[in-house]
Amino acid sequence: MISGKTKLFALIGDPVEQSLSPAMHNAVFKALGLDCAYVALRVPKVMLADAMAGVRALGIAGLNVTHPHKVSIAGILDELDESASSVGAVNTVKNERGKLTGFNTDGAGAVRALEREVGKLAGRRAVLFGAGGAARAIAFSLVQAGVELTIANRTAVKAQVLAAEVERKFGTKVALVGIERRALGEAVKRADLLINATTIGMRPNVNQTLVTADMMHRGLVVNDIVYEPLQTKLLREAKRAGARTVNGLGMLVQQGALAFEVWTGKRAPIKVMEGAVKRELRRRGRL
Ligand code: ATR
């Protein structure tokens, strides 16, 4: 129910219509009986500063931030939590009486989702595909969790920059590999964990994958952060190889759960969030 005291939360980005976050967060507010509501607001790139003034003026209590604002918003907030400053990108904002603080829950969300499926990640060897916004957050969190990391990205220089930043922060070596089949195959052969943090395989490119079944092995855990579709080509190939697969729903839910915890200080009911996301996907005929 919306009342005179309802606290408002919002997703800002462009586009936002397809987002699952409103369904997920409103389900939590309802389940916990919180007088809060969550909406998706399309904010064009050039309107970001105005939108932030609006957030302050209207007292919007918290935000999720998505493409194309994740990096640019970092420069206009009052403060950045360490999770956002190390990565250089923000996906969550908390508004405390007009003071806006940026957080990044993507990396910790990805690690939590994986650990929930396969146990502690410390000591495992991972190959991470990507060096964009999502991959950057995940790379920092994987190394923080004690993972031995290899980064594979089409644009080598982006992977080099990311590796250097992670090495500087944690003092551990990060390996690099190209995305051509042979080199990638060798790296995957030595890995326990493979994570796709690129947009490869995302609708409409549903038949794209960097690795095929013959390059994967039993005992490998393969995680795709893409959740549209849920069963990506990568995960289908992984299954054929007898590898264990983890789809993108876990990270989506866990990053949302961590955002909820940032805003409210309360523990998020994961099952409620999962149920809401699945219900919404089913409603759209995507599950
Ligand atoms: P996000 O914020 O979702 O991570 P992004 O910053 O645009 O999005 O990053 C997209 C990632 O997918 C990048 O790692 C990109 O590789 P480049 O750094 O070389 O651009 C990767 N990517 C997207 N399409 C790709 C493709 N067809 N082949 C290889 N890599 C691709």
List the helices and strands and how they pair.
Blueprint lengths: L6 E7 L7 H11 L4 E7 L5 H11 L3 E4 L13 E2 L1 H6 L4 E5 L2 E5 L2 H13 L6 E5 L3 H12 L3 E5 L3 H15 L4 E3 L3 H9 L3 E4 L24 E4 L8 H8 L3 E3 L2 H16 L5 H14 L4
Parallel strand pairs: 1-2, 1-3, 4-6, 7-8, 7-10, 8-9, 10-11, 11-12
Antiparallel strand pairs: 3-5, 5-6
Helix pairs in contact: 1-10, 4-5, 4-9, 5-6, 9-10
Bound molecules: 2'-monophosphoadenosine-5'-diphosphate.
Structural description of this entry:
This protein is an alpha/beta fold and 287 residues long. The chain folds into 2 domains: 7-104 and 251-283, Leucine Dehydrogenase, chain A, domain 1 (Rossmann fold); 107-247, Rossmann fold (3-Layer(aba) Sandwich), CATH 3.40.50.720. 40% of the residues lie in helices and 19% in strands. The chain has 10 helices and 12 strands. Strands 2-1-3-5-6-4 form a 6-stranded mixed beta sheet. Strands 9-8-7-10-11-12 form a 6-stranded parallel beta sheet, sandwiched between helices. Helix 1 links the parallel strand 1 and strand 2. The longest helix is centred in the last third of the chain and has 16 residues, at 249-264. The chain starts with 6 loop residues before the first strand and ends with a helix. It binds 2'-monophosphoadenosine-5'-diphosphate. Residues 130-135, 153-155, 158, 179, 198-200 line the site of 2'-monophosphoadenosine-5'-diphosphate.
Number of domains: 2
Strand elements, count: 12
H-E order = EHEHEEHEEHEHEHEHEEHEHH
Strand ordering within the main sheet? 2-1-3-5-6-4
Bound small molecules, by name, code or SMILES, are: 2'-monophosphoadenosine-5'-diphosphate
In the predicted model, the low-confidence regions spanning at least 5 consecutive residues are: none
Arithmetic mean pLDDT? 97
Structural class given helices, strands, pairing? alpha/beta
Write down the Rg. Answer: 19 Å
The rough form would be described as: globular
Strand content: 15-25%
Main sheet characteristics = 6 strands, mixed
CATH C-level name of the largest domain: Alpha Beta
Looking at the structure, the CATH topology of the largest domain is Rossmann fold
- Residue share in helix: 40-55%
The CATH architecture of the largest domain can be given as 3-Layer(aba) Sandwich
